[in-house]
Every structure is written in structure tokens, then in C-alpha cells.
Amino acid sequence: MQLIYEQSVNGRRGVRLPVSDVPAAAELPGNLLRRESAALPEVAELDLVRHFTNLSRRNYSLDTNFYPLGSCTMKYNAKVLENAAALFAPFHPMTALLPGGVELCQGSLGMLYDLGQMLADITGMDEVTTQPLAGAHGEMTGILLIAAYHASRGNKDKKKYVVVPDSSHGTNPASAAIAGYEIITVPTAPYGDMDIELFKKAMTDEVAAVMMTCPNTLGLFNPHIKEISDIAHSHDALMYYDGANLNAIMGKVKPGDVGFDVIHVNLHKTFGTPHGGGGPGSGPVGVKKALIPFLPQPRIVMNDDGQFLLEDQKTASIGRTANFFGNFSVMAKAYAYIIMLGREGLIRVSEQAVLNANYIKERLKTYYDLPYDMTCMHECVFSASKQLEHGVHAIDVAKFLIDKGYHPPTVYFPLIVKEAIMIEPTETESKATLDAFIDVMIEAAITAETNPHLLHDAPVTTPVGRLDETKAAREQNVCCIG
Amino acid sequence: MQLIYEQSVNGRRGVRLPVSDVPAAAELPGNLLRRESAALPEVAELDLVRHFTNLSRRNYSLDTNFYPLGSCTMKYNAKVLENAAALFAPFHPMTALLPGGVELCQGSLGMLYDLGQMLADITGMDEVTTQPLAGAHGEMTGILLIAAYHASRGNKDKKKYVVVPDSSHGTNPASAAIAGYEIITVPTAPYGDMDIELFKKAMTDEVAAVMMTCPNTLGLFNPHIKEISDIAHSHDALMYYDGANLNAIMGKVKPGDVGFDVIHVNLHKTFGTPHGGGGPGSGPVGVKKALIPFLPQPRIVMNDDGQFLLEDQKTASIGRTANFFGNFSVMAKAYAYIIMLGREGLIRVSEQAVLNANYIKERLKTYYDLPYDMTCMHECVFSASKQLEHGVHAIDVAKFLIDKGYHPPTVYFPLIVKEAIMIEPTETESKATLDAFIDVMIEAAITAETNPHLLHDAPVTTPVGRLDETKAAREQNVCCIG
Amino acid sequence: MNDSHYCPHTPEEIQEMLSAIGVASVEELFSPIPSELRAKTFNLPPGLSEFETFDKMKSIAADNRGGMSGFVGGGFYDHIIPAAVDHLSGRAEFYTAYTPYQPECSQGTLQALFEYQTAICRLTGMDVSNASLYDGGTACAEAAMMALRITGRNKIIVDGCVNPFSRQVLKTYLYNLDVEVVEIAPLDGLLNREELAGMLDESVAAVLVQNPNFFGCVDDFSALAQQVHALDALLIASVYPISLGLLATPGEMGVDITVGDGQSLGNPLSFGGPSFGFIAARKAFIRNMPGRIIGETVDKQGRRGFVLTLQAREQHIKRHKATSNICSNQGLCALRGLIFLSAIGRQGLVDMARMNRDKAEYAKSQLVGIPGVTVLQSAATFNEFTIFLPKPADGVVAALLRKDIIAGVPLGQYYQGSENCLVVTVTEKRSRKEIDRLVKELEVAVCN
Amino acid sequence: MNDSHYCPHTPEEIQEMLSAIGVASVEELFSPIPSELRAKTFNLPPGLSEFETFDKMKSIAADNRGGMSGFVGGGFYDHIIPAAVDHLSGRAEFYTAYTPYQPECSQGTLQALFEYQTAICRLTGMDVSNASLYDGGTACAEAAMMALRITGRNKIIVDGCVNPFSRQVLKTYLYNLDVEVVEIAPLDGLLNREELAGMLDESVAAVLVQNPNFFGCVDDFSALAQQVHALDALLIASVYPISLGLLATPGEMGVDITVGDGQSLGNPLSFGGPSFGFIAARKAFIRNMPGRIIGETVDKQGRRGFVLTLQAREQHIKRHKATSNICSNQGLCALRGLIFLSAIGRQGLVDMARMNRDKAEYAKSQLVGIPGVTVLQSAATFNEFTIFLPKPADGVVAALLRKDIIAGVPLGQYYQGSENCLVVTVTEKRSRKEIDRLVKELEVAVCN
Ligand SMILES: Cc1ncc(COP(=O)(O)O)c(C=O)c1O
Ligand SMILES: Cc1ncc(COP(=O)(O)O)c(C=O)c1O
After folding, report:
1. What is residue A237's three-state secondary structure?
2. C-alpha R_g of chain A
3. What's C63-91 look like in SS3?
4. Residue C22: left if φ>0, alpha if ψ -120 to 50, beta else—which one?
5. Interchain contact, D54 vs C80, CB within 8 Å
6. What residues contact residue A463 under an 8 Å CB cut-off, 6+ apart?
7. Given the CA of residue A243, which atom of ligand 1 is nearest to it?
8. Calpha distance B448→B385 (Å, rounded)
9. Which of A124, A153, B273, B433 has its Cβ near the most Cβ atoms within 10 Å?
């Protein structure tokens, strides 16, 4: 398909603007003016509409078919959530920060406050900040809260390390590093969880925090989690919970109950907000009492007569992590999702997410190697090692699935499983969908033995075949010239 | 693709309803109850969304590419019109019919009134009713108005016939017949318009009306139109104008000025409202003074202090042609379209619609036979007679275009042109789009000579190939059993 | 010229095109129009930007009084519309497509309408449905004309309990044909069967009834169907689709042609439209059906596909001999109806229907508690019912309008002598709180 | 269990699945969780239907005061959003897709983001752009960290005229690193160049400025760029994209890294988010860029396609050595930005920018007419400017809020001694009538 710039015609106008109702201002001094107008597209609105409509049709999406991308919780994005969020489009965030402004924003502020309360209940935390704009942003915020906590107790210099299991998501170590810590990585034991002995060795009083997700990225719930957090606490290290896998345990376990001190939640995963082709997300952070003083400002608080206020004194707070109140409309969707599903609904979400994952695991384990063969939670991780004997890699299976009309599972992660095939079905998929997917996965396994080239050549049904990534990295054409 | 019914699973629930907040009523007597619930789909919302999203992806549409369907005016449907119409979703039409109700509906009633005024200006009529729900509905309404007019002058029994040219759209004779008239069809002369001599012969005092569209369905403006209406009037016959081709002449000619007494307008053609895969449309009818008394009730009138009222005495009116005020939200879109484009904008619409049609006509006439080779208005009609020498029919050219990513022109109409290829580009298409289409049309003409089978076998890129229409008509499977 | 809406050409492009055509100016292309016929005036206002246009539309909508709590029906009903209905019917490929004349690239619309036809058949208990008509009133008229064709007779008997607007539309349609339309005045809000019996003879093409009728009364027309069939006449019933979640189907009663307005199925009130009319009949009558019909078939490779079928009934082929003049129908609204029914689902429609009746019965029980207010007892009702007030209903309704309550439809203007009658509609959207407020305010209004 | 939202299984299906798994109950699947760790309480309210949920959201939105006429900016701006932006970004294939990890079935997102990167480069005059960051403030922080990596130095100088929220975010990000962040207090609403000169040395990694700055002042940083480069330090500029329809680009000024908030490009105010941050830089720095970058390439058949490229910078590969921790970005908002810019178009952006300035200048000229009101004269402005009031701005703003006018941002809480200063923003959406009303009411407020 042409680029929109390739469709531009000199002098063509798009959407028409109002005629000005004020006199023209004097021209600015030349040095303040750009020399020529930016070469933006010059297309008719109809051509614009066709361009982006046809681009959209070159995307696979959740609304077109099953999207079993492990660790991403691609659950159905209810349409009513979009309508609900749109209700808040006209409200300017600065209004709340003006003198007397909070009175004009009681709806928005109250919703954020309630959302925090509900997330605190779900996660077992004492207070939640809704400022963080995504999971990784929440992680960094959380680690900074931990740093502030240690600093407040005179341990800023003493606390140098953050411990993560090697199965952790890349954002965990990255966020800790950005927040100023060095990383200690603990290997995974044959039983699929962080090796507890090696963990004990790694723990010293110089460790500021341990970052884990439970269930972990193999989809396994760590039975030693309490022991681990006790050990961490005994070294005055705080426990950080990566909430990306929360979909498995709502109403079943509260991270706060098993020793976690800080948690981020991915509203765009567990709470049904769309992923938007990469974002926006939202990553509220919950903390235990001891960390409340350090939460980002402004804090939304409720006074005795139920009015919502902004608290913004220069306290021990780590300050702002985003310019305003976070990705508000994403939170509006998550809020609507939570009140719609309610207590029973969320419990059922976790139950059926786990049911679906185990169903796929059992149905496929005779065809694909299952490195950690035990009851999983919301996702399961296979390895294409059997297929590799025929020269077929996980990525080849992935591309084969694309030709069959499915989005592949996650195949680059977790790094600890060679040729990983990480499947997270989520609760919103019907049995018919799961069965159809399982059939295609089996077909892929059989074809890997009989006709491996079919997998190597896939995909053939897409607008483009496998793309030359080396060329892209070498030439670095990231902006169209001309 | 599966039917939605084929995806149903016994007991599966879709969208959840509120829990009742009132006591359950006593059961109705058995004879009033249905024996078993209707076998409607039982699917999850996600499966519903995927089903209809994927169905939509099997449609060609204006937003995906050029749609040069002659006589259909497939112009761009501006997105802002959709937003504008949605503003009126909550208003119940009965409100206006209640005592004191009009006060609550001044916005809606005023808009309909203004729309009528603007359409009257565009068409040169004295008053407009917005009740008719589509073009054909407008035609029937118009002919009934003419019948009422003749009846009021004691000529009900005398007036038996409606005259139409053989180039007229099928709805014209059909509407006149439904309204109780017999049809006299006048052939088209070699110069592309209704044969004036034969017309004169056809005209007697028993003719109630002459139905024409000008430009006609060949895209030609009839230079004798005034003479024709004078002749009609001399027989006390009224002139009916089929407004489906209005896109060619806005601001250039007013049907009311050239002797037409009644007109319908297709808002879903000339005024940019979407066709919805077949509807809804809207077909307001304009009339000259003499016919105002017969307009459908309730009539929207404005009193001296600018308040809008409903006039609904049992006058000479033909009564209601629709239950309420017509396809209101379609009219809201057309109203927004008209005020947005304004006087100059609508003139330009007609100019560029005509420019585009003539451009295509000139560029293609060496490749396709042009039965009536003269300056056209908004559309031009070719014949595939040249291609037929190679055994290629207009329909084969059409199917070839589908494989090339284009919606074909109209090929079943007008009936007077053998192997007709009727092209209406509309004004909203850019030159680049027209040129690309022209190239493919040329390719089709060449392929017709070199590889006719390629056209006979087309389309091959679609989810299904040419379908067996005889089987459909014979088996009459119009509802899925089970 | 550049900045005009939706006319993309630049001046340079226009020049290129003009020279390709071989004319000097766009004006020259209009030379076929005799100059004396050219428009002398054109008084529309100048254009607006998109932003200003939407702003103006908002101010127009604001001139309507919103936020009213509605207890009116009369053919249009305020029902829940699942969010998915807007999102899916709003897919550009659906709403910017034309009639599916080229089936290979229109399977989306065609399959959806086939599924719609199936839904209508299953809902009504009939054999065949078309792909939509304009609205409920015009559907009554089309059904009547269909019966005239089928029977070759020229009398239609219409129950006065049928929606008065639909009756008017029917009369308008038949106005210039030599067809006799006889109306039977209601008896206690029901069909006057005695009077009907007196009129039934071999000249009658069809009898048109409605269920639930304009008074809200639910009736059983099984016996009537037999009577009518005994004379080789047809029974036409207009029905309210939501009620069919609960009520006996026209099919079960022996109705020959079923029609109705589909607005209640996922279409917003929108001040009266667009909605859609549906028509369904016994298989034997399929060739007499008006409008488009989608049929199932296969392509050369045996793949299932859908096409417009039996087109020999239609105007674009049969012209004045067509079964109807309809061309554009209300396809997108019918699609909304299908999506609505699919979203609510089989059991969902039953639950929704039941909730409508429950709320109406609750409202009824409360309203009759008001001194001087009684309810029409002659028959069972669904979600609408008629009450008698101790004073003219017009004044009461006007009084409640001032309190943002649309209390119902006063019958006075539709039935002589019913000045004190009010038809109250209660859908699932009306909360107990709203109902209680209606009752409270109505009591205030009647007791002053 | 059936009627729970978005959990489709019927009891029968659950049984089949359980037996396929070989467990007796769903509960058994949770056995890996030690019972003593199981949640004891779970106090969320019971669920609601879709209809009730939307109703509740409407009532929450209604608790905000709407219909205000806004003259506030501070990083978010109330600009026209063409209708096509919502309709196209609302295509399900865009908003329900994940990050385009599988390029063959994600060309829609990938090509769109490539076009977005191009738009940002052309708008800012830079060589390379990424595919979006979170927002304007975090983009400033990422740019600073990028400069620290590139220069290997550890001091960042921040002009006090930069948006105070962005400055706070930057400090939070750097809070636990041993990096020195030095702020320079504004001088007459401009960068205090003298003070800066005194601080510039080889320890400085970068200087961060903003144009137009928080006071609305437009500046020329060309000379500053040379100064900074002379020390092998970098110049980072935060810019307001709409202003680039008119103003000199960072590229023209010699800026090394350009950042900003993209909300003004087709994203609604939505109480602060989501918007998107953009970052663009000189080509040399591409390997130090944070976040995702789309690159052009070809497939085996030579067909053009787009992929995520230079991923070796990112967390999922480099983990703690990544250039940033960002994973999810604000892709859909960036897409809206692209659609907005494509809809408005090349000349449209120029016109829009000019209209912003014209309206602001008009408002300025009217406001200074109020006795006691003067305007900051130190520099030219775009669509925001600072005025001095004869009394504290807080009270005046509060007074106008009561008249549904958001008069502007009082500077008192951001700059000591500026209690009487007010920053007024005027976008193209504010009509002359609204401006005149602001002036009238502000006069009333200051003269009492
Ligand atoms: C386990 C895990 N942690 C953290 C993240 C990062 O979340 P985000 O992409 O919202 O920054 C993800 C997202 O893929 C994840 O899967
Ligand atoms: C020339 C002409 N007349 C009348 C009509 C009928 O209009 P509608 O489909 O709105 O009933 C059409 C529509 O195709 C037409 O092209």
C-alpha cells in the first residue's frame, strides 16, 4: 500500500477550518518563523478515510479472531467501555488544579478515588496511585517508592540491588535499573519457580527489593511465595509484585496478603481495556501503609463530607510521575469494567481464565513439549523442541498459525524456555474457539514432521511475507524522505 | 463463514440485562403465550463481535475504494454527519404529537422545516414534505398528490395514465402503478432523450402525469424539457421530476423553473447520507403551490413568532405516508451536509460531478462503445458491445473489475442500452482515483480481446465466485431451518 | 476552490481534466442546458466548517427538551440497545456499501440479511421474510396490497384497534385504487368480533389486526384465522417484536402475513426514524412478497454464498408489474435488528419481554390505586395498558410534561369519546423509581 | 454462571473441559495455591448489567461541571478534532490489536506508525522519531536520560520556564540516580541566559528548554544550541506541536533532541489522558532512543513492509541494559495524531496555527484595555500569554469559574512572587464572543 505521503497532491486541502472572526495579528519576527511549512499529507478526506480504513484491514485484531498472546491477556474489550470513556472527553485536567477547581471535577476525581479503593481491595494493598501510565511506568514508580522508603530510613546508599528471577519480564530489571539499582538475577529451578536456595544466597541487606510476578511468566503459582517474602523482609528488602498476571487470581489470592509491599496493575490486561496496537495502557500502583507518604503528588483524598480533594504539599512524595492524573479514559474503562463484573464476575474471570489455559495445556501436551508439566494458572508455556528436530522453530509454528487465521502465541518470551510457545487464552474465549485453535496447533505439529517447508515458507496469505529485519536495522529507514 | 445460528450453543448468554426491581407479574393465560422461545442466536458477545466484524470485512464499500455505480451517487459520506445525527437518538416522535408536545421538539421540528425550505430553494418548489422514506416512496407520494389534485378538480376518473420514458428507472412506473395509474412508455430517440414526436402522440387529456428525470438515466440533459412540460400542461397533466439525478444540476437549473410540478429528492444520493447496504434513504417531496393542500399530514408549519407547529386537520391531504416524520436521522445528516457545503459548495459539487463524468467518458470512449456520444452530466453510459464480439458481456467486465479491487459500474440498467456500463464517479473522487480506475477499465477492454476467459472466470479474489442464481430462485432457501 | 468540502481537485488538476475532455471551462460542460432555463436565484447560506456545522447541530438538538422519563409507545419503544449494536452496525463496510447487486463483494451484507430473515421467521413463526420494508405502517399497506394480489379481491377489513397511524398510511396507499377499506370500531379496546362476522364474505381479501393492539390489549386470533380462511381470505397481523419474547406467534395463530415495525429491535428513537418494517408470510406467498429477498446458493466450487433472489418480483425488472415499488429499503436498520437479537440472545429476549410485562403490571397496580383511576379490564396486556382518568387526559399529560414526565398517549384524538383514556407504556428501561414518580405526579394532576 | 459477563462457557462445556483436564472442579485447578494464602475477604460490590453500568458512568460524568469556556492550557489544549479521527482510530482492527510483534499480520499498525514517525520528523525538523512515549513530561525525562547516556555526563540544566509538571516528572525520574538537576529561575518569563552561561561547563550533559514556554513566550534557541554544542553538550527542546505550523522548528535551531506532548494533535482532553509523548533526534542518536521504532524493509519477494527495528535497545531483549523500561506506549494516541495531521493537512496546520495566534493577540489587545491589567512584554507569544492583574490571580480565576469561564492558569503556585500573574490560552475553538465575555467578566472581577 502507498504511504499517505505518496498520495499527497500539492495544494490539496483536507478538513476545512472555520473562518477567523478576529483581525489577523502582526507577523512574528522572521527568526521565530519556520522557513517552510511541514510537508504533511495533502489528501482529500475521502482518500484519508480510505487509506486508514484499508490500513486497518491489514491488521489482525482481537475483534477479528483469537489472540492467545502469552503474558498479554488479550481478553475481549467490551464496547460499552468505549462509550463510557467518551463521556469524559471534554474535561480539561488543569481545571482540577485551579483555585476552587476541584469542585468542578468531583465526578472524575471521585472515580479515580473509587478505582483506587477497588484495586486496593483486589490486590490487598492500603492505597493506590493512578498516575502511572503503563505497567513498566508503574514498576519504575513502585521501585522509586521503595527507594524513597529506604532513603527515609537512612539507607539510601546501603541499598544497591534489586533481585529478579530470570523468568521475569524485561521491564522488571529495566525499570529497576532506570530507578538506580543494580540487578541480581536468580535462575529458575527445575520445578519452574525461582530457585529458592540460590535466592537465599542472593539475598543480603544491600538488596532494596525483590520483584516477582506470581503466577510467574511460566503461568505457575509459586508455593514458596510467602517464604520468599519473609526472607526478603528479614533483609529489610521490600517485595514488588508485577501485576501483569493478576488475571489468574482475582478473589483467590491477594498479593498484599502474601507479603508483597508494592504492586502495579495492568488495567489494559486484567481489566479489559484495549491495547490500541501498543498502547495506551495504565499501570496504577498499590502500596502498603508504610509507603503511603511517598506516593506521587497530587494525591486524591476524600474529606469527611465525602468531597474529593487534591493533596499536594511537598511531603516525602517522590513527586509527579506523569503530568496529570494518569491515562484517565483508560481508567474510566477499567472502572466501568470492574463495577460491571463485580465481585462474582471477577472471581469467575480468574476461574475461567485458568480453566481455559489448563484445557489447552492438556489437549496440546502430547504434541508439544511442556517443560514444566503441572497445573498452570492463566497461561501455559510449551517448547517447540520436538519440532526443532525437524528444523522447525517456534517462529515457524507462529507463521503457520498466521496463515490459518490465528494470531500466534508469544514466542520470544520467556527467555528461559528455548523455542517458547506461551499461550494465554483468557476467560473470554468460548470452547468452540479453543477447540478450533487446538486443532490448528495439532495440524502445525503434524505438518512440522510431514512438510516442514510449509512452516518455513509461511505466511503466504498475508499482504507481505516474512520481512528482512536485518535490512531494516542496517538501513534505519524510520522516516520517509522527500 | 458460519451463520451466527451455526455458532449458537444451547444456554449460552449474550448481553446481560438488569435485574428486575419490581415483583414478577402473574403468568398470562396459556393461549396467549408462545409455546417455545424463538430459536435466536445463543452466542457470547465476543463471538458476536467477531462474527459481524468479519462479515463486514467481506463487503466492498465506499470507505474501502471507488464505487462508480451509475444512478446511485456513491459520494463520500462525511463522518461528521454520523456524529450529528447521533445527537437526536433519544427523542421520541410521539412527544411532538402530545398536547403541548411541540414545545419539547422545537429543535427537531425546526430542522425539518428548514430542510424543507432549503430543498425548496434547491429544486424551485414551493413546499416540501419530509415524510417519504426513500426515493420510490417519494414517487408514490408525489403521484398520489397529483391524483388528489386531479380528483379535487373532478377529474379522478378521467385521468388514467402516467407517461414515462423507456429510460426511466423501474421505480417510476412501479410507483405510478401502485398509485393506481396505467403506464404509457415512450421510447428514447437516437439523440438520447425521449422521442418528442412519439411523446406528443402519447399525450392525451387522460394523462395524469409525466414522470421524468433530467438529466435522464443516460446522464443527458434534455434540451426540450420546457417544451415537454408545456405540452403536458396543455393536457392538464402534471410534470413529475425524479430527483435521483439532482447531483448534476444544483444551482444550475431548478426543476421548478422548467415546468416540473412535483419532485422527490434522494437525500441518500445527492446529499451525502450513507446507503447502509441498501437503506435507509430519505425521499422528501417538493410541490408547487397548487398541490400544497394535498401534502401529507401532519404538516410542519411556522407561526408568526417563529414557533414550529404541526398542522393536522383532516383537509384535502392524502393523509400519512409514514407513521411519523420520515427518516429523521437521515435528514439530520442531509441538513448538516447542506449547511456545511452551503451555496457555493453545492454548486461546486455539481460542477465537479459533471467534470469527473466527462473526464471518464472521454478517456474511455475509444475503448468502449458510447451509444450517445455527447457531453454528459453526472454520469455516462457505455456499452460492452465491442467486447461482446469477443464473447465478453458487461457483467464479465464487472466481475473483472472486482478482482482488480473496484466496485463495478451499474450493468443491469438502463435497460435501453444493451450491455450497459453506467458510470457515475461523483464529485468526491480525486483525479488519481479516476485515473487508476480508467487504467483498469482499459486493461479490461484489452484483456477482453486477448484473454476473454480471464473475464469469464472472474472474480477469483473474492470469498466466493459467481453464484448460482437459478438454484437460489428454485430452492428458495431464504431462512435457515433448524 | 481548494477549500471546498469534499471536492478534492486542485486548480491544476481541473485544467488537466478540462484539456483531456477538450473544453475550455467547467461552465462549457453545462452548455447542453439552454441558457434561458438556468437558475436565476440560489439563496442558500454560505458554507460552514465541519466544526461549526457540528456546533450548529448541537444547538439544534439542544432546542429539544431532553432527559424526559417516557411512558409513551404508540409504535416506537424506548428499549435497551447493547453497545455492540452501534459499534458493529457502524462498521464502514456495512454503512457505506450500496445494495448488494454484486454478490461476490457483498457477502457481508447478504449473509447478514439472510440471518436477519431467519431471525424474523423464527420470531414470528412464519416461513419466509423479506430483507425489510420502510416502517410498520407501510408494511401494513404492503401486506394489504399483497393480499389483494393473492386473492384477486378488493376489500380490506381493518380492526380499529390497529395503530391509527398505520391505518392512515394504509388508507393513503390504497387511496387511488378501487379498493374498499372498512374499519371496525373497537369494542372495549378489542376487535368487535360480532361486527366483523357481519362483514366477512367472499369479497374480503384480508383482515388486518394488531397484537398487542393500540390499547395495549393482547388477543388470540386463532379462531379468527379459521373464520377468515374459511372464506379463502387472509389474516394479516401487525406485531410488536419484543412482545414475541413471550406472546403466542402469528404463526401459531394461523396468520398468513405478519408485519410490524422493527424500531424496538436495536434502533434508537431518533424522533421517528429510521426504523424498519418487517414482513413475513407463509411459503406459498413468497412470489407475491414485496421488496428484496436474500437466498442461499453456491458458487461453481460449491462454496455457500448468498444472493438477491426472486428479483423478477421487483421494479428494476418488472417495472409497473412489480409486486411493489420499493427499491432502497431499511437494510442497515434491519442489520441493527439482527445484531440486537443476536446480542440479547434467545433467553435474553424472553427475559426482556417478561421484564416489560412485570414493570407494566407493577405500574398498572400502582395507578389504579389513585382515586378515580380505573384500568381497561377487557383483556390481558403486555407493556402497554389503557387507564381511565376522572378528567380529560390531554390536560393531565400536559401537566406532567411540565414535570419532565411523558405520561402516555391520550386516546381522545384517536377515538371519539375516549377523552379520559390514557395509554401508558412501561419498558424495561423504566425504573421502579420512575414509575413511582409517574404515579405520584399523576395523582397530583388528577386530584386537582 | 451463564449470565456472567464475558465468560461464555455453559455448565455443560465446563464439565467437558474439566474431564478433558482430568480434574473434578475448577477449584481443584487452584490447588497450587497454599490454602493459608487464599484471600479471606473480597468486598467488591455485586455486578451490574451493561445498561446500568453505562448509566452509572453517565451520572459520574454529570458530577463534573461541563460546558465551561476554557482559556487554560498548561500542556493540554482544546483544539478542533476532525470527526474522521474518532471514526478511523475507532476501527476495531486498530484499537483491539496488540503491539505489532508479528509484522505480517500487523502492517496496518506498523505502516501507520511509520507514517507517524515521518510526520513528527517533518513537523520538528529532526531526523528520527520513535513510535511514541507516554506523555510530554516523561518524554522530557527520557530525553534527559538519553543525553546522560550519550554524553556520559551527569548534570542536566533545566530552564525554569519549562512546564512545571514536566520538570517535576523529570526530577522524579532522576531522583534515585546520581545525577544533578539544576533549575534556572526565569527572567521576565524567559530563560535567564546570563545565569545559564555561568553554569555551562564540561560536566553538563544537556540543557532542557521549552518553546513556547510556560509563560507563553516564544524564543529563538539557535545561539544557545551553538553554545551548548561548543561544550559537546546537548540541547533538548520541548515543543507544542500545533505551534510548529508557524514557529521555527527545533531542527532549524540546532536542537539535538526534541520532545513534547501530542495531546493537541487529535486527542481529547479526557481529564488528562491518554495523550502521547513524542521524541525525535538527530540520526546519530538513533541507537540511544527509548521505545519502539518502526523501520522500512522488504520481504523475500521485494514487497515493501514495516517492522519493529533496532529492538536491541529495548527491555525485552536488553533487560536492565535497555535504553528505557518502556514497553506499552501510547500507540493509538499517536495514530490519532497522524490522522489529525493528515486530515488537517499541510496548509491546514499553518492556518490553524495562525488562527491560534490571531485569537490570542486579539484577546491580549482586549485584556490590556482593562484598567490595571498589563501584559508581559519581554517576548513574542503564540496562543498563550501572561498578564499581570492588579490583584491576586487566584481570586479572579475562582470568581470567573463561578461564571463558567476558566480564565487561565494563575502562576502563583508555580513561581514565587507571581501571585498576580495569569497565563491565558486562546485556541482556534474560542470565538470572539467567548473572548469578549472573558474580557468583560475579568474586568468585573478585577475592578471589584
Ligand atoms: C509480565 C509483564 N510485566 C510487565 C509488563 C509491562 O507492562 P506494560 O507493557 O504495560 O508496560 C508486561 C507487558 O507485556 C508483562 O507481560
Ligand atoms: C433514477 C432513480 N430513480 C429512483 C430511484 C429510487 O430511489 P430509492 O432507491 O431511494 O427508492 C433510484 C435509486 O436507485 C434511481 O436511481
Report:
1. coil
2. 25
3. CECCCCEECCCCCCCCCCCCHHHHHHHCC
4. left
5. no
6. A1, A58, D104, D107, D303, D305
7. 3
8. 11
9. B273
Alpha-carbon span B434 to C13, nearest angstrom: 12
D421, D161 contact by CB (below 8 A): no
Distance CA D341, CA D334 (A): 11
Q: What is the mean pLDDT of residues D160-171?
A: 98
Rounded distance, CA B433 to CA B446, Å?
20
d(CA A142, CA B269): 58
- Scanning B159-266, the segments in alpha helix (DSSP H) are 171-178, 196-202, 225-234
Q: Which of D196, D138, D163 has its CA nearest to residue D72?
A: D163
What are the average pLDDT values for consecutive 10-residue runs of chain B, which has 482 residues? 97 95 97 98 98 98 98 97 98 95 97 98 98 98 98 97 96 97 96 95 98 95 96 98 97 97 98 98 98 96 96 87 97 98 97 98 98 96 97 98 98 92 98 98 98 98 97 96 74
Output the pTM of the full model: 0.98
Q: What are phi and psi of D97, to 5 degrees?
A: -95, 155
CA atoms of A225 and A165, how far apart (whole Å): 12
Strands B182-186 and B161-165: parallel
Mode of pairing for the β-strands spanning A285-287 and A262-265:
antiparallel
| Polymer length in residues for chain B | 482
User: Length of chain A, please?
Assistant: 482
Residue pair C265/C341 in contact by the 8 Å Cβ criterion: yes
* Alpha-carbon gap, residue B15 to B9, rounded angstroms: 15
Q: Nearest CB to D83: which of B15, B17, B80? A: B80
Is the confidence at residue D438, as pLDDT, over 90? yes
B115 forms bridges with which residues in the sheet?
none
Q: Could you tell me the three cell numbers for B475?
A: 430452492
Q: Give the long-range contacts of residues A366-372, CB within 8 A, separation 24 or more.
A: A367/A441, A367/A442, A367/A445, A367/A446, A368/A421, A368/A441, A368/A445, A371/A192, A371/A417, A372/A191, A372/A192, A372/A218, A372/A220
What Å distances lie between residue B414 and A150, B188, B421, C213, C314, CA to CA?
84, 11, 9, 44, 15
Are the beta carbons of B430 and A45 separated by less than 8 Å?
Answer: no
Q: A259 and A233 in contact (C-beta within 8 Å)?
A: yes
Q: Which residue is associated with the grid cell 479516476?
A: B434
C-alpha angle with apex A138: A136 to A143, nearest 5 degrees?
95
Q: Could you tell me how far CA B90 lies from the centroid of its own chain?
A: 27
Distance from CA of B240 to the nearest CA of C (A): 16
The secondary structure of A138-154, three-state, reads HHHHHHHHHHHHHHHCC
Give the DSSP letter of residue C374. Answer: E
Contact C183, C158 (CB under 8 A): yes
Residue C284: count other Cβ atoms within 10 Å of its Cβ: 11
Rounded CA separation C235/D404 (Å):
61
**Distance from Cα B317 to the centre of ligand 2, integer Å:** 25
Residue B211 contacts residue B186 (beta carbons within 8 Å): no
Cβ atoms of residues C318 and C208 within 8 Å: no
Residue D45 DSSP symbol: P
Paired sense of beta strands D304-308 and D69-70, if any = unpaired
In the structure, which protein residues have their CB atom closer than 6 angstroms to any atom of ligand 2? Answer: B 71-72, 134-136, 169, 171, 213, 217, 242, 244, 266, 281, 283; C 327-328
Distance in angstroms (rounded) separating the CA atoms of residues B45 and B14: 5
CA distance A373 to A354: 15
pLDDT digits (tens, 9 = 90+) for B113-162: 999 999 999 999 999 999 999 999 999 999 999 999 999 999 999 999 99
Q: Residue D127, CB half-sphere, CA atoms under 13 Å: how many?
A: 14
Nearest-CA residue for atom 9 of ligand 1: D328
Provide the ipTM: 0.98
Alpha helices per DSSP H over D37-89: 50-62, 83-89
C-alpha cell at A257: 496478603
